[in-house]
């Protein structure tokens, strides 16, 4: 039996909220009343109960869970340094979702803002582990300075996807914006929709020959995350380009041939 | 090895145990003795390839010279063939079991063999055959952890999150090493665990041909069983050994009590109608898997040639002083019949 905490956004409250101080592992020992009294110091020091309706109960889930309900487009830094358990957002989420996360999962049913899984403040490392799934589209700088873990975006991604990526994997079912994988050093970006890469930054595409494709695509949870992308279709031919050569990077960009 | 010595009949001549044995399978006497086995460390790996032929080549190389820990470092053999549906990457594969006397030896032998036998074989990939991370198997045998350096900096590490059936997440780390046919994919490491080595049974044959047929029937039956291997050539050895030797440098030497040519020279375990003896040696993941294999092997051997081919079946032991796992033949055959 694990605890499931559900926060439902008060409809009367529309101001942006920075929830970077909210950690699932730190909420688990608290009662429902105690959770409601948790203060958000980076947000005019209000109590959580003033912004959300709080519900806490035991559930059959194998991992601790934090659910967010209501209009969360103004909720930023959700899952900051998240490391254990599952966070689920029933709708859209604001900027910096999953910033500096190191483990666990974050699932967003709707869209996410800018800097998904990115670094914050003076940190040089963004997402450093775990699984971040967005069923909708995301803003700019998703996967910025990503070092480990996996980001799945079923919809479209904005500009500078995977910029300065160090390692890890980003999968996008839809289209991507400008400056894709700018200054990428290592890591993998998998694109459901082909793009024209800049020739002086990325190598010409060659056909992938590796059993790793099967390991990568034939995961049941991946098909559930990207239901309309057909990425796991075994008839797909995948082409890979390496870069960003501007920084001597050997990261990979996979595109369907 | 210690065996029940031949008794004496009413007329004073020596009577072989096979004439007095009450336990028989297809009429073949089974001696009321036990096989003595030892604690070992074990791991399981999965090798896949683009087709069955490459896979078998890789497995043959990997398990070659893996008959006995006496000089090979490990005892290893193919446990079972795997269909594409049973392998991680959807290609034909084999599961290989490897046993060593120490975890350290296993950690030395597996990457060494994998590097020379799996990495080198076209189209192959290498995966852990014991599912579970450090929480399940804290002791690990390096695979890609050691072999990745062949990539000379072009290797790629990928950690893939998998959702377990219970809903929890497990992350598996793979290495992708560029090679001349594409990529060698290799899991980072594999767990190792406790196991048992040295289970055995010995077939006393009326001829070389008949004991060969009996052994092949036994090995065919054992091959179908999970969790157990017979590491010797064809699953069988003719050089059953005893502990020690007249030569100080050797710690194992021929078991003269089972050598037909020495029947009249030494204290023999053989009846006069025994012309050839072969031994099936078994390593298994647990007591039950070896017991099942002993039962299946003895049953198949006896049913294949009967009393026309076999004088009897016995087992090798050291008086129970060296190994803590004792496989009593009469108990195994009675319980599983």
TrEMBL record, chain A:
SUPFAM superfamilies from the UniProt entry: Alpha subunit of glutamate synthase, C-terminal domain
EC number(s) per entry: 1.2.7.12
Source organism per UniProt: Rhodopirellula sallentina SM41
Gene Ontology MF: a single term: formylmethanofuran dehydrogenase activity
Name recorded for this polypeptide: Formylmethanofuran dehydrogenase subunit C domain protein
UniProtKB keywords: Oxidoreductase
NADP is among the record's keywords: no
Superkingdom, taxonomy of origin: Bacteria
NCBIfam families with a match to the protein in the record: one_C_dehyd_C (TIGR03122)
InterPro entries from the UniProt entry: Formylmethanofuran_DH_suC, Glu_synth_asu_C_sf
One GO term (biological process): methanogenesis
């Amino acid at each position: 039996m694990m605890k499931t905490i559900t926060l439902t956004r008060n409809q009367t409250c529309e101001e942006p909220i920075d929830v970077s101080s909210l950690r699932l592992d730190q909420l688990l020992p608290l009662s429902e009343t105690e959770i409601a009294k948790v203060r958000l110091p980076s947000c005019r020091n209000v109590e959580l109960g003033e912004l959300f309706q709080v519900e806490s109960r035991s559930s059959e889930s194998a991992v601790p869970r934090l659910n967010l309900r209501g209009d969360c487009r103004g909720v930023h830094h959700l899952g900051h340094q998240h490391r254990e358990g599952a966070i689920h957002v029933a709708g859209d989420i604001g900027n910096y979702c999953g910033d500096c996360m190191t483990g666990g999962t974050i699932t967003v049913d709707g869209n996410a803002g800018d800097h998904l899984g990115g670094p914050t403040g003076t940190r040089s490392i963004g997402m450093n582990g775990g699984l971040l799934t967005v069923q909708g589209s995301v803003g700019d700088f998703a996967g910025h300075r990503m070092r480990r873990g996996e980001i799945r975006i079923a919809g479209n991604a904005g500009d500078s996807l995977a910029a300065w990526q160090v390692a890890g994997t980003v999968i996008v079912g839809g289209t991507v914006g400008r400056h894709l994988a700018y200054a990428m050093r290592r890591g993998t970006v998998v694109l459901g929709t082909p793009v024209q890469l800049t020739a002086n930054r990325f190598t010409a595409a060659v056909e992938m020959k590796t059993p790793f494709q099967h390991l990568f695509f034939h995961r049941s949870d991946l098909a559930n995350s990207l239901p309309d992308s057909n990425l796991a279709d075994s008839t797909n031919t995948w082409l890979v380009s390496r870069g960003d050569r501007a920084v001597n990077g050997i990261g990979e960009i996979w595109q369907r041939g | 090895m210690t065996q029940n010595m031949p008794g004496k009949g009413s007329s004073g001549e020596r009577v072989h145990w096979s004439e007095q044995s009450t336990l028989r399978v297809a009429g073949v006497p089974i001696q009321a003795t036990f096989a003595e086995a030892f604690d070992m460390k074990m791991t399981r790996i999965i090798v896949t390839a683009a087709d069955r032929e490459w896979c078998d080549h890789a497995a043959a190389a990997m398990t070659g010279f893996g008959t006995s820990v006496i000089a090979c470092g490990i005892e290893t053999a193919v446990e079972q063939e795997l269909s594409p549906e049973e392998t991680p990457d959807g290609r034909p594969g084999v599961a290989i079991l490897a046993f060593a006397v120490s975890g350290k030896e296993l950690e030395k032998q597996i990457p060494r063999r994998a590097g020379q036998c799996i990495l080198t074989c076209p189209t192959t990939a290498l995966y852990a055959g014991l599912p579970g991370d450090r929480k399940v198997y804290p002791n690990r045998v390096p695979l890609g952890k050691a072999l990745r350096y062949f990539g000379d900096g072009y290797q790629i590490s990928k950690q893939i999150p998998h959702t377990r059936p219970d809903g929890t997440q497990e992350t598996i780390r793979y290495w992708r090493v560029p090679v001349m046919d594409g990529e060698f994919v290799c899991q980072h490491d594999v767990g190792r665990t406790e196991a048992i080595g040295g289970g055995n049974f010995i077939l006393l044959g009326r001829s070389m041909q008949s004991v060969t047929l009996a052994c092949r029937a036994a090995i065919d039956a054992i091959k179908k069983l999970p969790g157990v291997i017979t590491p010797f050539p064809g699953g069988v050895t003719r050089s059953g050994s005893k502990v020690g030797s007249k030569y100080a440098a050797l710690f194992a030497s021929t078991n003269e009590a089972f050598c037909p040519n020495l029947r009249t020279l030494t204290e023999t375990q053989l009846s006069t109608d025994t012309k050839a003896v072969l031994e099936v040696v078994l390593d298994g993941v647990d007591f039950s898997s070896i017991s099942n294999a002993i039962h299946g092997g003895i049953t198949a051997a006896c049913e294949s040639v009967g009393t026309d081919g076999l004088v009897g079946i016995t087992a090798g032991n050291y008086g129970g002083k060296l190994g803590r796992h004792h496989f009593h033949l009469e108990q195994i055959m009675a319980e599983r019949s």
